[in-house]
Amino acid sequence: MAQNSVKNSAKNVVVIGTQWGDEGKGKIVDWLTDHAQGVVRFQGGHNAGHTLVVGQGDAQRVYKLNLVPSGIVRAGVNCYIGNGVVLDAGHLIGEIAALEKDGLEVKSRLKVSPGCPLILSHHIALDTAREAKRAIKIGTTGKGIGPTYEDKVARRALRVYDLFYPERFAEKLKEVMDYHNFVLTNYLGSKAVDFNQQYDASMAHAIALKPMIADISAELYAANARGE
Fold this sequence. Notes:
Elements: H1 3-9, H2 25-32, E1 38-41, E2 50-54, E3 61-65, E4 78-81, H3 89-101, E5 110-112, H4 121-133, H5 145-153, H6 166-186, H7 195-209, H8 216-225
Parallel strand pairs: 1-4, 4-5
Antiparallel strand pairs: 2-3
């Protein structure tokens, strides 16, 4: 596809990988971002990895991304994380800090859906304990991606918006953590995860994330209406 045809014929371009990862999606998205005002991450988690090399010689910079869309390295491009993404809030906050240390302005250009399911400590514990128990390993990254999607489908996932209602968050967290701790200790022979540790971490994450929370659908509709 020629660059001019992309620029002149389409407002929205979707990049989908069909070969189970490592197809070069990040490179394609980076190329397309020359002609975009926004980049949206709509699925997956921080198990994905994108390395971008920008510039040459002494001016060369290397950026390593897991959750933040690759458009963040280009000035004036807004980035969005949609509700199909399972979100490790602590990892996202750390990734933002690393990018800002490298001189990028992130927080004013990154918006996060309040509907993103949260990856929590019990999801990571389940992921690693299941892999340890399997005779034939599946090669999971152990980052809690699969168990979080399971909770989403089972309608028990805690989502980003829950973070801003502490009492309700605590009730829901205790309920789902009791459920998963039973599996961890009684079936998988692993240790239970600690409620207080996760709750305290989540409340700290809420403070850091709040300025970036937005209705992603509304943001994208508005951008399209502006001709972006």
